[in-house]
Amino acid sequence: MKSVYLEFRPSITDIRGHVIRYEFLNLELYTKPKNAIQKQHNKVIEEVAEEIRCKRYLQLVRRDFSFISKDNLDGDFLEYFRKNGDYHGPKYECARLHFEKFCNHKCAFKDINGALCNKYRAYLLRDTKLHDGAKELSHNTASAYFNVFLSLVKLAFVDHVLGEDYTKYVRPIRWNHDTQKEYLSINEVHLLEQTPYEKCPELRRACLLSIYTGLRRSDVLKLHWEQIVDRSTQNTYIEIKMSKTDHFVYLPISKAAINILGERQNEGLVFTKLTESILNTHLSRWLKAAGINKHITFHCFRHTFAMMLQELGTGIYVISNLLGHKNVSSTQHYAKMKSSDAQEAIDRMDEAYEMK
Questions:
Q1: What DSSP state is assigned to residue 224?
Q2: What pLDDT is recorded for position 270?
């Protein structure tokens, strides 16, 4: 007997970088058929092989490589998660660690299906801790981690490792926009300005720049001197393509922000030694040194910028522009009316009523 296989010319490269030249069909022919039964067997096998060859030809024309995924389903999904997710940063790494705990550190591609995705969704929505002593996941953190997981499942489908897009059968965890967002008061901002941090001076400058410009962490870290443009003797702009939205904006910046930037360089990164890991490690230490006990993340500086503008009487549409939002509805999640504003409005109504 001899095996029947297809030969691909040119060869195909799978998601793991392996070059595929042959596909063995698990079919066998008699090399020297001795009777009518064996000859009939060979005829049927040749017809089946030809049918598969025609199907593969059409798949290759359509750029559909899903037929090679059958050899990948025994592969390690957790390793795929790590290779394709961790370089995005701590959020992706933490999302992977939570999924590893959920599946007891073992998950092959063949284990991924709609039911498993839904079980993991329910798991994250429970009071889940990564380990003893860790904080429980907030609803929005669970939402972020589940979205990361779904993005990797989707990627495995796009990469032809999974034969089906299971994310179509799973409801994402809705983000709760009504969650109270922390921000710094003006006095707390001044406290930070007066608090040096010798272990990483660039951290202090980067945080204060975000407070006075509203730039996201990703945009601060990749900011180049070439993006800071002097339009005149009085006005300075940052020209930047927002990493989250791909929205290109021109942001006028204040004198406070210019002072924080320090001596101007001709080119290159503004923060040459700063990384996401350094920010995550040292931000809380700097806040503690300043005597600020709130739960402040880097993103809270963006919220602080929006709230400072609101307290100065800036309209919501102007704030939206300065934050680089495409829609003003996004800004409304940052700039909320304070309870004191509501009370003042009612007090003014009472005063008008009493004047009758």
A1: B
A2: 93
Amino acid type, 36: A
φ and ψ at residue 186, rounded to 5 degrees: -60, -40
pLDDT tens-digit readout, 296-347: 889 899 889 988 888 888 888 888 888 877 666 666 665 555 555 555 665 6
Say if CB 27 and CB 3 are below 8 A apart: yes
Catalytic residues, by residue number, are: 216, 241, 299, 302, 325, 334
Q: Compute the chain's Rg from CA coordinates.
A: 29
Q: What is d(CA 275, CA 265) in angstroms, rounded to the nearest whole number?
A: 20
Residue with tokens 């924080």: 260
Helices 77-85 and 139-158, packing angle to 10 deg = 100
Which segments in the chain show pLDDT lower than 50? none
Helix ranges (DSSP H) in 126-273:
139-158, 186-193, 201-213, 217-221, 255-261
What does the pLDDT read at residue 20? 82
